Amino acid sequence: MLERVRRRVWGLSGRLIASYILVTLAAVILVEALVFDLQVSTQVNGSRLQARVDATARSYARQLARRYPHGIPQGTLLGETGKHARTGKLVIPAIAGPIRGDQAITAVVAIAADGTVMASSAPSRYPRGQAARAELPDQAAEYIKPPHVIKGGGVPTRYGNVIFWMAGPEGRAGMYVYVQAPWSPGFISPFRAWGELQRLGSAGPLVWTPYYALLFAIVPVGVLFGLLSSWRLVRRIRRLERATLAVADGDYTVTLPASGRDEVGRLEANFTTMSRQLDSALAAERQRATGDARAGERARIAREVHDAISQHLFGLRMIAAGMRRADPGNEQARAIERISEEALRDMQALLIELRPAGLDGTGLAPALHEMCAACHHRLGIAVDAEVDDVDVPAPVEHALLRIAQEAFANAVRHGHARHIAVSMGREDGHVQLAVRDTGTGFDPGASRAGAGLTNIGERVAELGGTMDIDSAPGRGTALTVRVPVP
Asked: CB neighbours (10 Å) of residue 374?
């Protein structure tokens, strides 16, 4: 049980689930970091800029109230001449020229108690005597009335987002001071945002609770997604594993259905092809081994017959010949000599059948020539051979050679032939093999076919060919075989 659990945990399914969880966690953490930055950057950047705007507005309100207790003279340009706007320590430049209509600027505006502009750092946008409500954000204009509240914040305007502060009323003239600076949330790192939130006292548990909850929820979601996405793949691989174990145990008949067009599906199809090829190769190897064993056993029997029985028959014939020469009228000695010669002849024919010529990669025609030479030298039979070198498949070569050997054995053992003619050629998509002898012959219609002719007929039928026998008592036998070849 523990081994099964361990295999599942450390197996493909477990690793896929772990990879899905890690990838999902990484993606969620990245998204959470971006969301966190978008959420807190507004608060952090706005808080810092708001503090500078507040301090600047209060400073201008105090200075203007001390310098102009009875009101700001006409033509006064607020701000710092020759300076550019900066937000690090808020610097408000004096802009005497025109301003682009869609440009949000850093500006300070002094507003009378009745809501009209007394002076500003940008007269082209906030001209003297104009109602402040026409240019200031609605939120700022609302503060120019009792009760006099000091208020500020970040608001959108037609010139873009700004952060403002409305300070006042200050001095005897009851002057309000409005300061604004362009504001964009921008991007800050999550670590800096976290530090700023802690400094501002806004990093409570509620900020992080949704992020923690989402991270913890990812684990079961990743497990479920990993199981659903890897279940079919793991099942196919386990089936392939079982098939490989079966092949390793010697079962080459295992086949796998191709369950897809992906890499695993192609692997299943290739595995089935491989197992079939292995099964065919093993069957061919078994057949070769059986044939080699049979040929080896026949060769062993042929050696035993040649070394023992043939020698005894030869010795018996020599003794009978000696007895006949010593007593020419001894009919028994003559009969023994004749029977010994016939037995020795049949034995030589049997040896040719037991130890036939082989193909040995040389081709059918050389093997037939070798068989003809063996019959001539061993049995003293005249053999005429007209054999063309034909190119046929290996199974056809093997069958035709065995048919020729069977025909030779029949001619020698049963027909007592002293002359044999062999011919082979190719015509009209067929190979024709003919073996003719001058033996005793037989009546094909009257006699039962022996084992030799039966074997020849079976081989020809397997090749899809035809066999013709022309024979009669006293005029020999002609065997003709036609086999189709590509």
From this structure: 18
